[in-house]
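Title: Comparing notes on inverse folding

I've been comparing how different people in this forum approach sequence design from structure. To keep things fair, I'm posting one structure and asking everyone to reply with a full sequence. Here's the target:
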């Protein structure tokens, strides 16, 4: 029970943090945490990210999508979250949101480059794009799961983004970093600045020897 209770609190804290710092708005987005190999906790349908409590979270079986129908309905985005957990055994925490600058990138031709600064290289190591599919659809889940094999930041065209990492802290930092990176990309395009992109060899050397944690396995 302690593991589940701690997981509830982590999700609640992240929801409040996202609303406080403009990383979510209203009831847009959803959060989940893996609590064992085949179980995740996910925010309920229509929940307000800034006012979550334990009753807003639903335990879902990853392999089947089954949940206890006696309580709150889980987010319709179960297919995306489950697909990431299936594709990435290292994924422990998943955040789907639509912060302004990242959603602007998702709704435009703005291309995002991760090899700009330390945090973008590390937290937004690989960025993928998924074409528009209706929220909650199996098609969207399948596309996200396939791209999760090769990217830890997935921009959903005309929708938002979904990120994942080993822990709550790492996933939250990933979300913050991609929002900052998208803001930088948009401003440089609007102002005509030319960003200085680091080379692939430099980025790879940094990731291999940064010492923060073992490199991601792709």
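Reply #1:
Here's my take.
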């Amino acid at each position: 029970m302690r593991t589940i209770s701690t997981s509830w609190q982590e999700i609640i804290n992240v929801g409040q943090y996202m609303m406080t710092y403009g990383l979510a708005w209203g009831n847009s987005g959803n959060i989940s945490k893996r609590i064992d190999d085949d179980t995740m906790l996910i925010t309920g349908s229509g929940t307000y990210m800034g006012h979550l409590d334990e009753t807003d979270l639903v335990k879902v079986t990853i392999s089947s999508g089954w949940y206890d129908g006696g309580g709150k309905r889980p987010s319709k985005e179960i297919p995306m979250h489950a697909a990431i957990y299936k594709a990435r055994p290292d994924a422990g925490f998943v955040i789907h949101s639509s912060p302004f600058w990242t959603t602007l990138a998702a709704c435009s031709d703005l291309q995002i480059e991760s090899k700009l600064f330390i945090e973008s290289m590390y937290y937004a190591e690989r960025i993928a794009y998924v074409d528009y599919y209706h929220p909650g659809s199996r098609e969207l889940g399948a596309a996200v799961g396939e791209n999760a094999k090769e990217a830890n930041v997935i921009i959903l065209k005309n929708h938002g983004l979904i990120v994942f990492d080993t822990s709550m802290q790492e996933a939250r930092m990933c979300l913050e970093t991609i929002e900052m990176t998208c803001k930088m990309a948009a401003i440089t395009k609007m102002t005509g600045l030319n960003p200085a992109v680091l080379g692939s060899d430099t980025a790879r050397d940094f990731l291999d020897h940064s010492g923060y944690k073992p490199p991601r396995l792709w």
